[in-house]
Amino acid sequence: MATPHINAARGDFADTVLMPGDPLRARYIAETFLDEFRQVNTVRSMAGYTGRYKGREISVMGHGMGIPSVSIYAKELITEYDVRTLIRVGSCGAVRDDVAVRDVVIGMGACTDSGVNRTRFAGMDFAATADFALTRALADAAHDLGVATKIGNLFSADLFYDPRPETAELLRRYGIVGVEMEAAGLYGVAAEFGARAATVCTVSDHILRGDSLDSTARERSFDDMMRIALDAVLRDDAAKGATP
């Protein structure tokens, strides 16, 4: 049944949803990687699609920017549409010396300056972590495709324009592999409602060095990341003994 933010019918979404921030990216993914896709959500132009990848039904839907936005869509997908697996596919900034633009970053955990997980966890600190099997599937897929990866803690920022210039250096010292705005919220929602979640991002810029990708390089890196995410879904199915 429809929600205030999703007008799909029950059964329109697959049990696994890939989630980029940009709804135009969702359409690009459907057109580029999925067969027999159809649009299943149009509310607020937050496009959602369901199709098949190598015979496996998969959905893709935008989640917007920031933890509040991704939390709304993830919660409704899980509780109203029976989605069990959500993989954020996005971009991030780098701060570590050994992380470069074009690298793929896999978020084993996600630190944050947001208070949402303390709110849901009765004021206590919640360790926002990805599902291990999904994380392993992403790492194995990246390895077999020959794509450089770093696996570790992300930092999900509440502010894109942080007024604290010292923050990036602090994140570097703590070994943060990527700075983005959603993973910690996604992991919290998944834990609260009994689903699985993971995050894979391409490094589009290095915050401390000032390196960045041009539009062509961003597109190529995004396609590499998408192949990793899609192949990881099939690997995860195989590990569970599932069939398309």
The Cα radius of gyration reads 17 Å
Total number of helices? 7
Q: Give the amount of beta strand, in percent.
A: 25-35%
Along the chain, the helix and strand elements come as EHEEEHEEHHEHEHEH
Spatial ordering of strands, largest sheet: 2-3-4-1-5-9-6-7-8
Low-confidence stretches: none
Shape: globular
Distance N terminus to C terminus? Answer: 25 Å
Structural class: alpha/beta
The main pleated sheet reads as: 9 strands, mixed
Mean pLDDT across all amino acids: 95
Helix percentage range: 25-40%
At CATH level 2, the architecture is 3-Layer(aba) Sandwich
Q: Would you state the CATH class?
A: Alpha Beta
The total strand number stands at 9
Number of domains: 1
CATH topology heading: Rossmann fold
CATH superfamily: Nucleoside phosphorylase domain
What keyword list fits this structure?
244 residues, alpha/beta, Rossmann fold, 9-stranded mixed beta sheet, 7 helices, 9 strands, Purine nucleoside phosphorylase DeoD-type, glycosyltransferase, purine-nucleoside phosphorylase activity, transferase
